Amino acid sequence: MAQEDKAEKVKVKKAREAVLSDDLSSGDAHLKFKKVKAKSTEKSQRGQKGTKQHQVKSPKKESTDFEIADDKRFKEEANDGDFMPVEKGKKRKRKLESVDGPSSSTALSVRPKKKKKVPQDGEGSSGPEKKKRKSEAKNKKVKKEEEEHSVTAKKAKKTKEEIEAARALKIKKKEEEEQQRWRWWEEEKYEDGIKWKFLEHKGPYFPPEYQPLPDNVKFYYDGKPVKLSLAAEEVALYFAQMLDHEYTTKDVFRDNFFKDWRKEMSLEERMLITDLNKCDFGALHAMHREKVEARKNMSKEDKLVIKEANQKILEEYGYCTLDHHRERIGNFKIEPPGLFRGRGDHPKQGMLKKRIQPEDVIINCSRDSRIPEPPAGHSWKEVRHDNTVTWLASWTENVQGSCKYVMLNANSKLKGEKDWEKYEVARKLKTCVDAIRAQYQEDLKSKQMGTRQRAVALYFIDKLALRAGNEKEEGETADTVGCCSLRVEHITLHDTLDGEKHVVEFDFLGKDCIRYYNKVPVSKRVFKNLKLFMQNKQEGDDLFDRLNTAMLNKHLSSLMPGLTAKVFRTYNASMTLQQQLKELSNPSDNQAEMLLSYNRANRAVAVLCNHQRAPPKTFEQSMAILQAKIESRKEQLALAKKELKQAKKEAKGSSDSKLLAAVEKKKKAVQRCEEQLLRMEVQATDREENKQIALGTSKLNYLDPRISVAWCKNMEVPLDKIYNKTQRDKFAWAIDMTEPDFVF
DNA sequence: CCGCTAACTTAGCACTCAGTCA
DNA sequence: TGACTGAGTGCTAAGTTAGCGG
C-alpha cells in the first residue's frame, strides 16, 4: 500500500516537467528563517598555498576569460536608493579552533587483487573475465615478441594470430555490450514521480565479521597486558590501524574516540582504562602492518583467488533487475565500521562508526519480486515497496544521524535520466538568464533589504559559481560556508586594489573545507550594497542576514520552473566549456593540440567551480625529474648545434656528398632535439597548471556531455581520448543522441 | 511559519592496477 | 625485474533541495 499511497501523493516535479513541457507550476517551498548559528573563524591551512588561480590578475588565460566576459554582462549602474536599516542577527560567540588538512580514509575491506599470472586462454572462461584474460595474454605476447628476437617464425606467427584473435574478441565484446545496452532514452518516460515498475535485488552485502586478535597479540594498559572484551578489542583495533595517520594525534579525534571506545567496554574495562595516553596499541598496530604487508606480498595465485571471490560477490550482489533490465548497483556494500573521519576540522572526528546490522536496514523492492534474504539468523528492519524513490536499501548512520542509501550506478537509467534532465534545466536557463540578470541588477536598488541581499547573493552565485550555502548546525560539522551563509569575516572590501576599483576579496572554506580565495572587481552598486550589509556587524555575523537558501530558491523557482541556485553552476560551467572550446580549438591542430585545448577548457571550468585537489605527493619530485630531463635535453641541443656548426664548417665550399649528408643529419638532430624540448616544456607547464586543480569533478558533474561529444565529432577527435570507459558508460545517452551541431 | 530530514547530487582522497622506467 | 606512476575506481563525506508535519 505504501507504493500506491505514496504514488498518489506525489507532487508535481518541476524539474522533470521543465524538461518535457513548458507549462509548469511553481513549487510551494516555505519561507524560513533559521536561527543564526555561531561559527568558528579559523581558516584551514590547506588552501593557503593553492589559491593563485582565482586572482583577478591571474596570468592564466582561462581564468581571466570568464571574468572579462562577465564584466560585459554586468553593467555598472549609479545611485543607490534608500531602504530599511539592517537588522542585526543574534549570534553566539564563536569558538576558535585550528583546522588541519583533510582526513583520509582507509578501507578495511579486502580489495580485489591484481592478477599477474594468466591461465591459458581458456575457452571455458566467460564474461568479463574472459576479456581481461585475453588482453593480458595479448600484452604478455607482445612483450615476448619484443624480447625474443630469435623466436621461430612459426611461433611469431602464432603470436600474431593470437593478438589478432584477442583484438577481434574485444571488438565483438564491445558490439555485444552495445547491443545489450538499455537505450532508455528512446523510451517514453514514466508518469511523474514513478521511478520504476519492477525492482528486484539481493539486498546489500555486509562486511565480514570481526576476527578476534590471536592470543599472542596483546593490548597493554599502563605497561600491563589486558585482555579486552571482543567489542572493546574491535574498536581498539580501529584506532591501532590508524596510528600512522596524523589525526590520531589530534585532541578532538582522541577525545571522541576514547569516549566512544569506553562505551563499548565492559564495566571492569571502563574502570581500569581511564587514560588514553596509558594505552599501548603497539602490538595491534604492528599486527595490522604485517597484515597489510602480507597482503601486498601475496602470491599471484592467492591474489587471483581473492579477486575471483570478489568477482563472485559483485555478480551476486552488484546487480539488480529494474524493469526487465539488469542494472549495476553503485554501492551495494554496507559501509564497514570504523572511526569517523570528517574533513577539515570536524568536531566529530574519531567517533565510532558502528557496524550496521540487517536489523538496521530497510529494503526497498517490488512487492512481486523475490524479496532479498537477510543474512542467516537476522531480519530486516523493514521491507517496503516504494517506487517513488530510487534506493534499494537504506540505513541510518550513527555519527551524524543521516540516512545512507544503496543506489544504482551512474550508468543506470535512473541516474542517467536525472543527469540528462539536469542539463536540460540548465539549457533552459539560457533562454531566460538575461531577464534574470536584468532583474537582479534592478533588485540591487530595491527598498527591501531582503531583496537587495538576494540580488547580491544571486550576483555572486551567477558570476562566481558559488554554492547556495545552507545553514549548518554548529558543532555538528566543520565550519564551512556557501553564498547565503557567508559571514562578514569572509569578505574584505577594497575601494581600489591593484589598479581596479571596487574589489571584493573572498576568503572562506567551502564544501569539503576547500578554501575559496578570490579577488573580484564588482559593480559599484554591488560594492555599495556590501558595505551596507556589513555596517554594524562584527565577525561571526551573517553577511546576508535577511536571506537563506529556501528564500533564494523559492524566488528562483518563480523566475523559471526548476530553477535553483545550483543550476547556475551547471549552466555557467557548461557555457564556459562551450565558449572555451570554441575559442581554443583550431581545426588545423593535431590531436595532441586538440586535447590540450580540451583540457584547458576543462580547466577553465574547474577553476571557476574551485575544484581543487591536494598536489600529488610526488609532485615536486616528478617535476624535478622532468626539469632535469629538460636540462639534459637542452645540453643535448647545445651539443647538437655545435656539431651542426662543425659539420657546416667542414662542408663549406666542399661538394663532398658525404659531408653534405652529415650536415643534413645534424640539422635533423637539432630539429628533433628542439621538438622534444618543446614538448617537454609544454608538458611541464601543463602539469604545473594542473598541480592543484581537479578536472574530474566538473567533467563528471557539471559539463553537459553533449558539448564534448559534439566537439569530438566536429574536431575528429576519438571520444575515448576525452572519456574513459566508465565515463562513456555514464554518458551513453549523450554519446548516442548527440549530433555535431549540438549547441548547449 | 518553522524545523527537520529524506533523497539525491557533488566532492576529494585512498587505493589498485597496468603500463613504463631504470 | 622490481620500482614507480598516473589513470581509473571505490569509498563515503558533504553538499542541495523538496516536502512533511506540527
Through-space gap between termini: 42 Å
CATH superfamily membership of the domain at 2-102 and 415-566: Topoisomerase I, Chain A, domain 3
What is the general shape? globular
Measured on Cα atoms, how large is the radius of gyration?
30 Å
Structural class: alpha+beta
The largest pleated sheet is described as:
4 strands, mixed
Low-confidence stretches: 1-158
The number of E-state strands comes to 15
Number of helices: 22
Average pLDDT level: 79
Main β-sheet, spatial strand arrangement: 10-9-11-12
Give the fraction of residues assigned to helices: 40-55%
Question: Which terms summarize this structure?
Answer:
744 residues; alpha+beta; Topoisomerase I, Chain A, domain 3; Topoisomerase I, Chain A, domain 4; 4-stranded mixed sheet; 3-stranded antiparallel sheet; 8% strand; DNA-binding
